[in-house]
Amino acid sequence: MAASAMPLLLVLLLASPAATRLASAACASEKFPAGRTYATCEDLPKLGASLHWTYDASKSSLSVAFVAAPAAPGGWVAWGLNPAGEGMAGAQALVALKGSGSAAPTVKTYNISGYALGAPSPLEFPATELAADAGGSGGKIRVYGKLQLRKGMKAVNQVWQVGSSATGGAPDKHAFGAENLAAKGKLVLAGSKAAAGAPAAAPEAGGPAASGGSDSGAASSMAPSGGKSPNAAVSTARVSAPALLALTLVGLLATV
Predict the structure, then answer these.
(1) Residues 96-116: tens digit of each pLDDT
(2) What distance in Å separates the CA atoms of residue 142 and residue 160, rounded to the nearest whole number?
(3) Nearest to 67 by CA among 133, 153, 154, 156
(4) Kind and range of the H or E run holding 181
(5) Distance (Å, whole) CA 96 – CA 110
(6) What is the mean pLDDT of each run of 10 residues along the chain (256 residues)?
(7) pTM listed for this prediction
(8) What is the Cβ-side half-sphere exposure of residue 27, based on CA atoms within 13 angstroms?
(9) DSSP per-residue letters across 228-253
């Protein structure tokens, strides 16, 4: 009896939320250059992106590494915080454009006041240590930065986006598919377990023709590009535990 109970116990452990989170944490395998380490990482639920961060509550400083692949070679990636709302208007964004040839991607900051990106501008959260590289797997760009947040901030909305092209050093419009419009969530800074992927609100419906600016991406002035699927490890983790439970139970009953 004790021997037959062991497989069931193992399955229950594997099917637990903690095990599912562990299996889905593909971000943990990201290898950064020497000197870059982060306390927490999360696979973001859209566009195959991930966020790595360390929050120093005593200094209200947030060090981040955002990892995503542009929608096409020569494209761009963007991540930002929005203390004013859920979408792009009001976002304090870091945008990295693919460098030409072997040059490193360039990082620009945008304090986005509307649905046109405009020229680069300082952020509401002072940004330092900005850098980017193309060392990620699958053509991904990794964007680094340190933001000085408001004292006592515990959670803030975040947005992220990818695009396929740039013109004159400025991002072109991104796609308006479901993945792009739902690329937003809430970054929880305080608490026992920070979380990055919880949706802040329902995805905005429609594309650029919908009323006046339903975009949640890194600017609605950026070029159609196919959005990437969420990280495959997340989808696998969501179905593997129940399937494993069923298979093991069948095997357990067969031995009784």
Answers:
(1) 998 777 788 999 999 987 666
(2) 13
(3) 133
(4) helix 178-181
(5) 11
(6) 43 38 69 92 96 96 96 93 89 89 88 78 95 83 96 94 90 89 92 47 34 36 34 38 41 42
(7) 0.69
(8) 26
(9) PPPPHHHHHHHHHHHHHHHHHHHHHH
Residue written as token pair 């020569």: 74
Total residues found in the chain within this entry: 256
CA angle 53, 73, 203 (to 5 degrees): 55
Encoded tokens for 93? 């964004």
CA distances in angstroms from 232 to 24, 49, 160, listed in the order given: 9, 11, 18
User: Which of 59, 34, 38, 44 is closest to 147 using CA atoms?
Assistant: 59
Q: List, as one string, the DSSP characters of 84-101.
A: S-SSSTT-EEEEEEPPST
Let me know: does 85 contact 157? Beta carbons within 8 Å: yes
Residue 148: phi and psi, rounded to 5, are -95, 105
Alpha carbon distance 233, 28 (integer Å): 11
